[in-house]
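User: Hey, my collaborator sent me this sequence without any context and asked if I could get a structure. I don't really work with proteins. Can you help?
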Amino acid sequence: MLTQFSRSEAARVLNVKEGRLRYWDRIGLVKPSLREKGKCYYDFQDLICLRTAQGLVDEGLSASRIKQSIVQLKAKFPGFENRLSSKRIYVFGNRVIISHKNRLIDSHSGQLLFKFDVDDLAGHIDSTVEKLETRPRSAEEWFQRGLSQDSDPATYDDAIHSYKQAVKLSPSLAGAYVNMGTVYYKQKRFVDAQRCFRLAIQREPYHSKAAFNLGNVLDELNCTEEAVQWYERAMEADPTFPDVYFNLAAANEKLGNWETALRYWKAYLQCDEKSPHGKIVRKRIKLLEAELA
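Assistant: No problem. I've predicted the 3D structure and written it out in structure-token form, which is a compact way to encode the shape of the chain:
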């Protein structure tokens, strides 16, 4: 987990402009804990201080007024720390009242009107920082995360989640549906895989990989005739795709379409002469030619 945050990262966590953080640094309200090589870095406690200051500003206090009140309190009470993260802070009009050693302290006199409690800010900052570190911000980033997860069975479910986020942000992203369907296919979740491939084809009617993979799913479900239709769609979309010819040949053999199967076996070899399956395919060709002679 991050332990140091640049000004831009801190601004993103707090959803404020960097200029506001620069101003608070300049007046001494909340200064970054580390400075090196011309850059400044906030630690986790600094973020809580920043969040506290932002809450007070949201309630109508100016940063300079907050700083002035803390300076006054520090002058009156030795040992008082200028550390907003460790205080319970109350706002009355344009005055700041801070709980210090079980006492409510105001640089003037006042009455409690609104309570701003920072006890839960650490948890909020923690979860916000975690999201900042790990959550992609665009469909493409979610897609790339899915790619990094979809080759390992241990992260298949994570990959599916990433692809779902990608299509949520960009519903026309056919490739994400194809990859999600492929993960489902690897998990033998054929109904889910079929749905994803069909969604991809709705978005890109001649997406060769989507059509090919849909054919594979249908073949697994013993819907071989429909599988052949989608293999043919894939072949139309990409005539140079060797695996389409292989699967078309095998599916037609399953259906008893010997002449069609023979044609596709030959087409497969023409498309990929150096195929590692060449020996098997040539054997099938000889057997079918003998059968049809």
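In plain terms: The radius of gyration is 32 Å. You can pass these tokens on to your collaborator as they are.
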